[in-house]
Amino acid sequence: MRNFFLGIFQRLETNIFKFNGNGNGKHAIPELPQHGLRLESAPGKEGLHPELPANTPLDVAICRAQQYLFRQQNKSDGHWVGILEADTTITSDYIMLMHFLGKVDQNKQRMAASLLRDYQLPDGGWNIYYGGSSEISASVKAYFALKLAGYSANEPFMQKAKKCILGMGGVMKSNCFTKIYLAMFGQVDWQAVPAVPAEMILFPPGFYFSIYEMSYWSRCIVVPLSIAIAKKPHISVGDDLLKELYVVPREKVVYRIKRDQSGLSWHNFFIDADSIFRRYEQHPVKFIRRIALRKAEKWMLDHLDKSGGLGAIWPAIINSIFAMKCLGYPDDHPALVSQLKEVEDLIVYEKDKLYLQPCVSPVWDTAWTIIALHESGVLGIDPAVQKAGRWLISKEVRSFGDWALKCKVNEPSGWYFQYANEFYPDTDDSAAVLMALQRVLLPETARKEEAFLRGLQWILAMQCDDGGWGAFDRNNNKSILNHIPFADFNALLDPSTSDVTGRCLDFLGRIGFGKTTRHIQRAIEFLQKEQEKDGTWFGRWGANYIYGTWSVFSGLAAVGEDMNKPYIRKAVEWLKGVQNSDGGWGETIKSYDDPFLKAIGKSTPSQTAWALLALMTAGEIKSDTVERGIKFLLTRQKEDGSWDEIEFTATGFPKVFYLRYHMYCNYFPLMALGRYRNSLQNI
């Protein structure tokens, strides 16, 4: 292990790489500590697959959790992947997609509709996370999907849904993308849809309104959608299927978006621009439109290469299918066939029901499982861990993607989230993968060393000018663009965030980067600016302030920040003060809408683990707070070594789209228990 990392650092000392830090010059890798690597001591109770319980309840719980995770491993190639669950909107989309294509699998439609009926709330609507209240767009989509599936508006459960939807303002209160889908089926007028002009593909990279100033997911969603909107398909299913969901009769709806009263504002600017573009949509300049559509089509097809569907995410995949059909692709066209296969691969079957995942998470799940196993005492030479490490190395990105427009390195690298998404590695996954690989001992040292070096260079080059890290791009932070009317899904951009910055610091600190390096200094300054008044940090990708605060603590401790500094102790006291009476921690997704609800919610295994990991990082090993939290995890563990968690504790788009990783409740608690045991042994 030590020889491996010494080799890494020897190569770092002589390697120069390009990145856009303060300009376009060349920058050397920062100097590392003179004492070399700061390698952590091996966990206290290490071994290969633990087969016999050890002495204490803590040992027994750790052993059970390890064995549970080993049983979940894919034995053929060594990776782990859990179900990634979202809300019902994707299942509703699936029913719509079948009708759009004119190829309805009656059995699958029945199973999808059955799930929608099961997830209907007592008030008649549908929510976007477990325990949440009815949400207008999810409810409208579910209602329409059920109508397509053959259910009558006179059914009692449909009457209840109608009443709920009207109470929330009716179909016209649904979001932009819902209205676009409904417009394709003739259920709302195209006038209700904000402009998404195909011509924006013609703006060059670097131009303020280029598609490359949007987040990766927005890019992949919007480009194919602009093709569909330009073609304005009309799928005949009966234009009045949703007439009962209009508060104002459809023929009397006023479609103009309201301006605010300030007169001069970016909001008003983009509303006026939207009005101009919508008028242009009625009579576009034909030769410009042809050029734009050809370029958008080429961009879409080019980005299918080495990807699990466009962008490897549901909205982009389904939009690409809409676009291809609008362009006249035959059913047997290879690109269309491949996208349809990706759709089917996202289906989860549960008895007589089915639902769809928004994407899959094998790289993320595998990295954190390795980390949790190692933290809890499994050696890096364990054959199962080695197999998983080789699988992770095989997933390194080896070609340039969209990120390269703003991030200049000699060689591409990074890791993505899914099985394949070559254009879009992300810093969060990459940092987690590299931390996992650091824990794996492989005989093929050179291969690991080369991947490790490339990944390190890539993460350093991806640091943004503000000192933080975004997920998929550098400096994707032009907040003015959030005023664009079609950006009502609240995630058009991918700016630096506290949780991703904390993850990158966690990795860099583990391999020897300390506070004396400029990369680290800038990142700490960024995190101090991002801290909330009560000491917490916002969690962009996990729910919410508990997740964000844990991520930041892990990073700060790894790079050697004094965890007794007042700004850190303020967060420690906050974490201790929000512990639930049962010893656990929980935070409702509602905290994204109302920060006063931060850390209020039913205790969950994953959020309890995050709080414990944060507190232990801050030296609270022997505190009553930590001991009560550990007891919560021990008493909630099931006989098979797993934990139950039905709450959503992860985030796609804050306020709009949330996630439940089915493995979060298993590898994070194991990681916390392992860290606790290790810390006790080192006291």
Characterise this structure.
This protein has two domains: about 1-85 and about 360-470 and about 500-680, Glycosyltransferase (Alpha/alpha barrel); about 85-250 and about 260-355, Glycosyltransferase. It is built from 23 helices and seven strands. It has helices at about 1-15, 55-70, 90-100, 105-120, 135-150, 155-165, 175-185, 215-230, 265-280, 285-300, 315-325, 335-345, 360-375, 385-395, 425-440, 445-460, 500-510, 520-530, 545-560, 565-575, 605-615, 625-635, 665-680; strands spanning about 15-20, 25-30, 85, 345-350, 355, 650-655, 655-660. The chain has a three-stranded antiparallel sheet with strand order 3-7-6, with no helix packed on it. Strands 1-2 form a two-stranded antiparallel sheet. A two-stranded antiparallel ribbon has the order 4-5. A hairpin with a 7-residue loop joins strand 1 (about 15-20) and strand 2. Helix 1 crosses helix 16 (about 445-460), helix 8 (about 215-230) packs across helix 10 and helix 13 packs antiparallel against helix 14 (about 385-395). The protein is globular.
